[in-house]
Design a protein that fits this description.
The protein has about 300 residues and is of the alpha/beta class. It contains ten helices and eleven strands. Helix 3 links the parallel strand 2 and strand 3. The longest helix is centred in the first third of the chain and has 13 residues. About 30% of the residues are buried. It binds iron/sulfur cluster. The site of iron/sulfur cluster has 11 residues, from helix 10.
């Protein structure tokens, strides 16, 4: 989130629980199999667990949550009971001071405790670490060893010069440098064959059930198999992280349009998606204010 925040939405702009139910039913009819709740921070929303509850009753093959981990702890046992087991923690550094500088809060202990608790419950834990211009190789090494010792899947997200102030000319952490960093620490790491739709290049190490991954979010090397749609809290569907084009799903539902009509429109919208994130970005008139607005 930008330090000076973002304009808040009014409550009436947010999808209600019954509207989530409606949207999830549409998703199932479109054969969407996987849902990931992300943010901002999903646990901030007071009725977030009710939304997860609706989704877990709807026969999705896979439900996952991406969280900063600060508010997750009280909900882990319930999530486990619902079989919502895929938790992705956003954690950019293990160093308390760096963590505080990046997040503007002194909560690293809470996050680490939530991660340990999720592991203790046998949940499938992964960590996403966004690399920043001042991330050091030592920090990366610490995170890699920590994750592998705990059998965690850690994914390093390529630095994205994409922060509302335009594209920065300095770009310190591209995927090649991350890969070199992994291989310098673990020369026997083997690269896994990428699953269709996967966003990460994953390296396996013999001694751990965890893994090391790279998400080339800025190089966009995985657009060819991208099959994701993003739904914002006000019910807009986006087909690309870099595109400003959106389909106003909730608005159409509130206008009382039929599911058949909406399905046809969404189908046309998805077919109009740019061939990759670079083309999508070119179509934009202005910079996105923050990834927090679209669920980066
Ligand atoms: S840049 Fe757009 S098309 Fe490429 S992977 Fe990301 S969301 Fe998908």
């Amino acid at each position: 989130m930008p330090a000076d925040g973002l304009p808040w939405l009014e409550a009436k702009q947010l999808a209600s629980l019954s509207e989530y139910q409606h949207m999830f039913e549409l998703f199932r009819s479109w054969e969407i199999k996987k849902i990931r709740f992300t943010g901002g921070e999903p646990f901030i929303r007071k009725d977030f667990m009710s939304i997860v509850d609706i989704s877990q009753q709807m026969d999705f093959e896979n439900i996952a949550i991406t969280t900063n981990g600060v508010l997750a702890l009280p909900h882990l046992a319930q999530l486990k009971a619902w079989n919502v087991q895929n938790l992705n923690f956003s954690l950019d550094s293990l160093d308390g001071q760096r963590f505080e500088k990046i997040t503007r809060r002194n909560d690293i202990e809470k996050v680490l405790f939530a991660i340990d608790k999720a592991l203790e419950l046998g949940m499938n834990v992964s960590v996403n670490a966004v690399l920043q211009c001042d991330t050091t190789e030592e920090e990366m090494h610490n995170m890699m060893h920590w994750a592998l010792e705990k059998n965690i899947h850690i994914r390093f997200i390529e630095e994205m010069p994409f922060n509302g102030q335009g594209i920065t000319p300095d770009w310190h952490w591209n995927w090649r440098r991350v890969e070199n960093c992994i291989l310098s620490q673990f020369p026997d790491a083997t690269k896994q064959v990428k699953k269709p739709g996967s966003t990460a290049d994953v390296f396996q190490i013999k001694s751990s059930e965890g893994s090391l991954g790279i998400i080339p979010a800025y190089s966009r090397t995985f657009c060819g198999t991208c099959n994701r749609l993003r739904l914002t809290p006000e019910g807009n569907l986006h087909h690309c992280l870099y595109s400003h084009q959106a389909y106003p799903l909730l608005k159409k539902i509130r206008e009382g349009l039929s599911s058949e009509y909406i399905t046809q429109e969404v189908s046309a919208f998805v077919k109009g998606k740019a061939i990759n994130g670079f083309e999508a970005e070119k179509e934009n008139q202005q910079q996105l204010a923050s990834m927090a607005q679209i669920g980066g």
